[in-house]
What we know:
Number of strands: 9
Helix content: 40-55%
Radius of gyration: 24 Å
Oligomer: single chain
Shape: elongated
Distance between the termini: 23 Å
Order of helices and strands: EHEHHEHEHEHHHEHHEEHHHE
CATH superfamily of the largest domain: Crotonobetainyl-coa:carnitine coa-transferase, domain 1
Amino acid sequence: xxxxxxxxxxxxxxxxxxxxxxxxxxxxxxxxxxxxxxxxxxxxxxxxxxxxxxxxxxxxxxxxxxxxxxxxxxxxxxxxxxxxxxxxxxxxxxxxxxxxxxxxxxxxxxxxxxxxxxxxxxxxxxxxxxxxxxxxxxxxxxxxxxxxxxxxxxxxxxxxxxxxxxxxxxxxxxxxxxxxxxxxxxxxxxxxxxxxxxxxxxxxxxxxxxxxxxxxxxxxxxxxxxxxxxxxxxxxxxxxxxxxxxxxxxxxxxxxxxxxxxxxxxxxxxxxxxxxxxxxxxxxxxxxxxxxx
Length: 293
């Protein structure tokens, strides 16, 4: 469990779906008290829509995981304004959609911080995860191996983490200035900022890099019963321990040897064992090898 460093902080979350609730989940994990306000009409948060759950059950799990241990209230911003004011009067911060109605309500209560979420400026206001990810320079790396979207909404996940960081930075700014900090954070800008950090001219010349399986020391293999082995024995001590444990006849420098032969030696070695045998061999061994089970 994380240290409860924010145990005296109360945050009002008017957001739904993934990024906003993820940001407040992160802050909740550090002890903040999160009051999530959902519309009392229908199902509140679209991730909690029973029809969506029928279409794709993961959204039910995501909703529950993102909002676990938050205080959830279903109210209407206009009809239940007095109730909302009482509920929110001692809040330190608000996380809200970039909408004048929500901003006006939050400003009236004079919190320390207001964080507003938006897809982007002007025509990018309604940007979704995949749109934002597709605008980053590094998305082409994913397309080298797949024509499908990534298995998780990585832009939204990065955005949620950035929102949490922005809120903490804004709180620090408030304590220095004693003035309410009112910031809008854009999905487009955050995604480009984060993912373009990892762009490199080398990707054009060499599609395979260390992080995506260019070398035998950092790649995926299979056991005899088709369980995936995640090997990340980059450092000398881990590679040497791997060679010793599995009696593999390779050299130190072979961990970065991209030849087909080195990969085949490891593939044949691991394919001799089922997952149970692998677990037994690596028990109490420090060699950066895990089984995907």
